[in-house]
Design brief:
- The chain has one domain.
- The chain is built from 14 helices and no strands.
- It has helices at residues 2-55, 58-63, 68-93, 101-123, 127-151, 157-184, 196-232, 234-248, 251-267, 271-297, 301-308, 316-342, 346-399, 410-425.
- Helix 9 (251-267) packs antiparallel against helix 10 (271-297).
- The chain is globular, with a radius of gyration of 21 Å.
C-alpha cells in the first residue's frame, strides 16, 4: 500500500507540472504551435505502441516466467524495428507532420526504451526507481522548457523537441544505470532449456495482442486530432489538445494504479484474488478520478481565456465538459484492461479498445463536421463509455461478479481506513 501511495504521489507531482506546462506552451507557442506539438506527440504515441509489442507490459509478464536477461535483448532489439514500421505506415497514410518524420522516429525509440526500463524496474519491484524514471521523463520537461522558452528565448516547436530529447535521454541513462546490477547478475531461468527463438515467438504471441489493444486505445484517444485537422484546421487541433491535456491530467492517478495492479494480478494465479484486487482498484480509481475531474469542471471559462491561456483558446471549458464523462470512463476501463492483460485474457482488452475505436470513428464522422471541437470531445466520451460497458460485461461474465460489486460498500471504506492506519503507523500493509 505504501508503494501505491508513493506512486500516486509521484504521478500527482507530474500531473501538476504537466498542467503548468500546458499553460506555458500555450503562451509560448500559440494555438497553432500547440496543435502541431499535439500532432507530433500523437504520432510518437502511436509509434511507441508498436514498440510496446515487446517493450511494454510484455516485459513484466515474462519476467515472472523467465530470467531478466532472457527478456532484455528481444525488448531492446525490437524497439527501432517497431518504431520504423509505425512511422512508415503513418507516412504512407499522410499522418506524419511535414518535416518532423526523423524527430518522431528517434523520439519514439527513446521514449520506448525508457518505458522498457521502467517496466524492468517494476518487474524487480524497484518502485522508487520506477517512480524516479517517470519524474525525470515527465516532470523534468517542465523546467527544461521553461529555460528554453524564457532563458534562451527560443519559443517554437523546435525548442519543445529539444526538451523531449534531453529529458528522455536523462531518464534513459538513469533508469539503465539502476538496471545494471540486475543485468550483471546471473539469474536462474525457471524454464531453462527453452530456446531463444521459442521465447521470441511466445513474447510476440502475447505482445501482439497487447499492442493491438494499446494501438486501438491510443487511436481512440488521438485519432480525433487528425480528424479535427482535416475538418477544422491546426488551430482547432490546438484547442482540442489543450482541453484534452487538462482533462487527461487526472489519468496520472489511474496509470499509477494500473502498473501496480497489473504487477499484482500477474503474480497470482488465484482467480478469486485477481477479481478482488481488480474490484478494489476499480473503486479507488473511480473515486479519485471523479473527484479530480469534478474540480477541473469547476474552473470557469474566463480563467482559461484571461489568465491561463489567451483569447485564442475560447471554448476550452466546453471541450473539457464534453470530455469529462469519457475521462472517468476510460480511467475505470484501464483497471479492467489490466486485469485482462495480467490474467492472460488479453484478447478481451483488445476487444474493448477496438469497440471504442469503431465507436469513435462512427460518432466522430457524425459529430465533428457539424459541431467541430465540441463534437470531437463528445465523440471521445461516447467511445470511452462504450469501452467501459464492454469491459464490465466481459469481467462479470468471466469472474462471476455482479454489477453491484462495482459499487463502493462499507467493507471498502473499512479496508481503506485500515490500510491508511497501517501506513501511518509505519507498518507493512
Amino acid at each position: 500500500m505504501r508503494d501505491l501511495f508513493g506512486t500516486i504521489s509521484t504521478r500527482y507531482l507530474i500531473a501538476i507540472l504537466n498542467l503548468a506546462l500546458i499553460f506555458i506552451n500555450a503562451k509560448a507557442l500559440g494555438v497553432e504551435g500547440v496543435g502541431l506539438v499535439g500532432l507530433i506527440l500523437a504520432a510518437i504515441g502511436i509509434a511507441t505502441m508498436f514498440c510496446g509489442i515487446l517493450a511494454g507490459n510484455t516485459i513484466v509478464y515474462f519476467m515472472n516466467r523467465y530470467s531478466m536477461q532472457a527478456v532484455f535483448l528481444p525488448s531492446y532489439c525490437w524497439t527501432p524495428v517497431g518504431a520504423g514500421i509505425a512511422c512508415g505506415c503513418m507516412a504512407i497514410l499522410g499522418l506524419l507532420p511535414e518535416g518532423y518524420a526523423l524527430d518522431i522516429y528517434i523520439l519514439s525509440i527513446l521514449t520506448s526504451l525508457v518505458a522498457a526500463n521502467s517496466r524492468f524496474l517494476l518487474g524487480k519491484n524497484r518502485i522508487f526507481g520506477f517512480n524516479l524514471t517517470f519524474v525525470l521523463q515527465g516532470g523534468l520537461l517542465f523546467f527544461v522548457l521553461l529555460f528554453l522558452y524564457y532563458g534562451l528565448e527560443k519559443q517554437d516547436v523546435t525548442a519543445y523537441l529539444w526538451g523531449m530529447y534531453l529529458t528522455n535521454g536523462v531518464a534513459f541513462l538513469v533508469s539503465l544505470f539502476l538496471l545494471l546490477p540486475f543485468l550483471r547478475k546471473k539469474e536462474a531461468d525457471p524454464r531453462k532449456g527453452r530456446s531463444g527463438y521459442a521465447l521470441l515467438q511466445e513474447m510476440f504471441a502475447y505482445g501482439l495482442w497487447g499492442s493491438a489493444d494499446n494501438i486501438a486505445e491510443i487511436l481512440t484517444t488521438r485519432l480525433n486530432y487528425f480528424l479535427i485537422k482535416r475538418f477544422a484546421g491546426l488551430g482547432s487541433v490546438g484547442l482540442l489538445d489543450a482541453g484534452t491535456k487538462i482533462s487527461e491530467s487526472v489519468w496520472h492517478i489511474n496509470r499509477s494504479i494500473d502498473f501496480i495492479e497489473y504487477s499484482r494480478v500477474a503474480r497470482t494465479h488465484n482467480p478469486g484474488e485477481q477479481k478482488q484486487i481488480t474490484l478494489r482498484f476499480f473503486k479507488l480509481t473511480f473515486c479519485a478520478v471523479t473527484l479530480a475531474t469534478g474540480c477541473i469542471l469547476l474552473i470557469p471559462e474566463w480563467v482559461y481565456t484571461d489568465y491561463l491561456f489567451s483569447a485564442e483558446f475560447a471554448g476550452m471549458r466546453n471541450v473539457i465538459t464534453g470530455l469529462s464523462a469519457g475521462i472517468i470512463a476510460l480511467a475505470c476501463n484501464s483497471i479492467l484492461s489490466q486485469y485482462f492483460i495480467g490474467s492472460g485474457k488479453i484478447r478481451y482488452s483488445a476487444g474493448s479498445s477496438f469497440v471504442g475505436l469503431i465507436s469513435l470513428l462512427v460518432s466522430g464522422y457524425l459529430l465533428i463536421p457539424s459541431y467541430g471541437v465540441v463534437g470531437s470531445a463528445i465523440s471521445s466520451s461516447i467511445a470511452f463509455s462504450t469501452m467501459l460497458a464492454f469491459s464490465m460485461i466481459i469481467f462479470c461474465w468471466k469472474t462471476g461478479a455482479r454489477p453491484r460489486e462495482f459499487l463502493i460498500n462499507k467493507e471498502d471504506v473499512r479496508f481503506a481506513l485500515r490500510k491508511l492506519r497501517l501506513t501511518h503507523d509505519g507498518s507493512q500493509p
